Amino acid sequence: MKLNKNILIPLMLLPIWYVVYVHLQSMTDWLIDTALGLTKGAHLTEALRFFIFEFPKVLLLLTLIIFFVGIIRSFFTAERTRKALEGKNTFTGNVMAATLGIVTPFCSCSAIPLFLGFVESGVPLGITFSFLIAAPMINEVAVILLYGMFGWKVAVMYISTGLVIAIAAGWIIGKLKLEKWVEEWVYATKLGESDLEDEKLTFANRITMGYVAVKEIVGKVWLYVAFGILVGAGAHGYIPSEFMVSFMGKDVWYAVPLSVLIGIPLYSNAAGIVPVVSVLIEKGASLGTALAFMMSVIGLSLPEMVILRKVLKLPLIFTFIAVVGGGIMLVGFLFNFIF
Question: Residue 254 gets which letter from DSSP?
Fold first, then answer.
């Protein structure tokens, strides 16, 4: 059977990817210690070692996993997602919406059209929020970076707690019956049904969509990755551990709420913030505090609030921030207690 070139290329590149990934640390050490002959243990040397190792490692992980995520995403569209959530009861709908938020290709930038589509089709407000919380917070970039820098246990914990926050926050908002704080024009809007039939895609088509996902996502985030790892490298090489422990350590009672309050007005995507979080933990910040900071930056960013203000009144936005922020703080305290 003749293989399509779109299928043949990843089959050929996968062994090369594996060899490079497995030997990346040894190649980095050879470059730093032998080829460049830099003094081992010096601030600049260790900062360079961190950057030269972490940057290609993250890009390798992003390229591989986003390729497969792109294939999975070829089965999802905004219309399919909207229809899947129609008519669902609370809690069951919250669980389903949060789960769909992980695998569907939407971020806070998609908030308005998604919100309109959900409301117009009768999706309850709380279920809508479960989706809008999970979609940006538990995205493939965050999970890939967490896996690459901390291992699968931390990545799984992040996914699990992010899901719990999205489900619980959406359920609470739904129970509070806050529809009066949605802008009136939203309920008056009627979106037309899509006249397009779902395209029947072949496996080769879906492979192509994997390539497109790599090109679009990696093309957009590589600079954020580079900047985040550059900041992390500087902190790795030059910031003393005692400094971080003094206000982000496990024994500092105000560390978690302070980190969440600092994170909310900041803006960064996962590609920029995870490398920084990695170094914060390495330098003595507790796991719960660092993850709470990361969740607040990704899930409660100021630009997202500005976008949501077009469809939500301020009391609902502040309720959204309070409920989600409270959930993030509980996760931070819980992780600090367990670990």
Answer: T
